[in-house]
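Please check these two lines:
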Amino acid sequence: MTLPTTLTKGHATANDFVIYADPTGAYDPTPEEVAAICDRHRGIGGDGLIRLTRPEYVADLSVIVKNMLRGEGAEWFMDYRNADGSLAEMCGNGTRLTALFAQSLGELSTEIGTKFALATRAGVKTLVYRGNDDELGRNVFTVHMGAWKAGEIGEYDVLIPTAEGSAKGTFADLGNPHVVSVVADRTHQFAAALPASSLPDVDDLDLTRTPVVSPALPAGQNAEFVRIDTADASANAGTATMRVNERGVGETLSCGTGLCATAIVLRKITGIANWTITVRGGVLRVEVSDDDVALTGSSTLVGTVTLTK
């Protein structure tokens, strides 16, 4: 078995992970081992597995990329795997849990404002420790996701196998692919700008099956479904509700890159850059600029698990 005996379970707004430290590169798991550990009935259970290791011990990275990550000041790499064992480029919620885990190991100060450079397959992400927040919860971190890309509004058709109707989705790239569909606007301010949707409201969707996106993306996608709840253009702020079906996982209670993709698409539609977004796992804040997306939310270490032979 290429997993350590002791693993840690944690979550970031109920997006849950199994995580462990591998500073010497001794524990690079197989896809089958990841899937077994993340199995909610036969394993520990989780939306994914995170191996906190050094960039030089990540097998799928080139020497050039490893040196680049080190050159940008990242001593640690978040080697993230989806629950099915497949590699993933990025996980926004996972970065916050990884930072908290590194803090528990003494690799990150508990002083408010401390920064942590974390390498990922989508580049180096900078996290800032915020402490506790009355609205967002405990052990709050902001992760700066860096550059993003987005496509034309409503250029994808999105169907849900368990629901009547369809929606128009917008592509966003946070290092991993997303298609975001805004299915309702309670403010009634953006009727002219919103792509057409005949899907039920966000709360009524059944996301137990993978949404179908046309034209298909070669590597698949995370699919987000969003409702605008409030919007104040003068304050450059709004609130929204989101649900997500994650590639390689299914519906999760939160998705960090999905929250960022949602805020990017909402900005394209409404012009508003700052969003407080409710997901089933909690509340998070997202700030979008032309060259960065900042995601702020809580993180929690639940406990340690000792594997039996």
